[in-house]
């Protein structure tokens, strides 16, 4: 008998399940919305090949949790008057579950006030371990790409859409991206770049509130509009360095984008 027999009432089954999870050391909630696996097992299985599981849609009772996390993010980000305060505000923010599994907050690196601000997706294992963005294999490629147009890492400012590593480097979900976005908007305001470079589809789609393919977006300049009513910041979409490591045949296109960055910097004088 495994304690999950169909004859037990659902509440008792859930108690058994919770006890089992506690005994197994599972004591944190990592998804923003609970998944009712009992409901799933009650649903008759289709005969055809089952579709890939989709994230559960938000239900009415989950909305306040989401709304309060977003409100908290906006309030904390909005009240940060400096990068140091913004970092502190992020460190104290508990509205994104990724913080629970990450080792370090990865805030940003480089020179505040730099003309160009690069924005990636999320920290990987090396960044999570060190607390610095783009220090692993894709970071080394990014350093070489910058050097190819005469830039050192300290000539730019670098951060990510998400400051915490998603477990196993999975793609960040919509909620995680949106709840961290107020901090990124404030980050851009405080760094004050003349233009931005969006590294990869997650960065471009999150910042531009789109759902496009990076292959089609790359090489194009967009207007990034943050929270405030100020002028938009020009933002170039390009491939993510980790994609270039997997698909070196796309480096020629990325090189064109690097030249566009160089030309834009030169035009600033
Ligand atoms: N990939 C990213 O998008 N950001 C990092 O900091 C490292 C890898």
Proportion in helices: 40-55%
**Strand order, sheet with most strands:** 1-3-2-4-6-5
Largest sheet: 6 strands, mixed
What small molecules are bound in this structure?
A: uracil
Main attributes of the structure:
six-stranded mixed sheet; about 10% strand; binds uracil
Strand-helix topology:
Layout: H1 10-23, H2 37-42, H3 63-78, H4 83-91, H5 98-101, E1 109-110, E2 116-120, H6 125-130, H7 137-148, E3 157-160, H8 174-191, E4 195-199, H9 201-208, H10 214-217, E5 221-224, E6 233-238, H11 241-246, H12 251-268
Parallel strand pairs: 2-3, 2-4, 4-6
Antiparallel strand pairs: 1-3, 5-6
The structure holds uracil.
Description of the molecule:
The N terminus is likely disordered. A six-stranded mixed beta sheet has the order 1-3-2-4-6-5, with helices on both faces. Strand 5 and strand 6 form a beta hairpin. With 269 residues, the protein is α/β, with parallel strands linked by helices. The protein is built from twelve helices and six strands. The chain binds uracil (URA). The site of uracil has 13 residues, from helix 7.
Entry summary:
By secondary structure, this protein is of the alpha/beta class. It has helices at residues 10-23, 37-42, 63-78, 83-91, 98-101, 125-130, 137-148, 174-191, 201-208, 214-217, 241-246, 251-268, and strands at 109-110, 116-120, 157-160, 195-199, 221-224, 233-238.
């Amino acid at each position: 008998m495994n304690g999950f027999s169909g004859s037990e009432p659902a509440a008792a089954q859930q108690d058994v399940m919770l006890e089992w999870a506690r005994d197994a050391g599972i004591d944190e909630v990592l998804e923003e919305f609970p998944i009712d696996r009992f409901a799933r097992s009650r649903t008759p299985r289709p005969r055809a090949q089952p579709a890939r599981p989709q994230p559960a849609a938000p239900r009415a009772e989950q909305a306040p949790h989401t709304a309060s996390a977003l409100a908290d993010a906006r309030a904390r980000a909005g009240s940060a008057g400096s990068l140091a305060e913004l970092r502190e505000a992020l460190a104290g923010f508990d509205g994104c579950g990724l913080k629970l599994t990450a080792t370090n907050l990865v805030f940003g690196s480089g020179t505040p006030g730099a003309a160009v601000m690069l924005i990636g997706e999320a920290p990987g294992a090396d960044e999570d371990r060190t607390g610095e963005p783009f220090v692993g294999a894709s970071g080394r490629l990014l350093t070489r790409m910058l050097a190819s147009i005469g830039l050192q890492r300290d000539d730019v400012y670098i951060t990510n859409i998400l400051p915490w590593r998603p477990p196993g480097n999975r793609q960040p979900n919509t909620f995680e991206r949106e709840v961290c976005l107020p901090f990124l908007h404030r980050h851009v305001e405080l760094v004050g770049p003349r233009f931005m470079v969006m590294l990869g589809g997650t960065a471009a789609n999150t910042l531009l509130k789109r759902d496009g393919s990076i292959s089609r977006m790359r090489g194009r300049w967009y207007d990034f509009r943050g929270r405030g009513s100020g002028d938009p910041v020009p933002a170039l979409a390009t491939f993510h360095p980790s994609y270039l490591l997997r698909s070196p045949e796309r480096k020629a296109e990325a090189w064109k984008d690097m030249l566009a960055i160089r030309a834009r910097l030169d035009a600033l004088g």
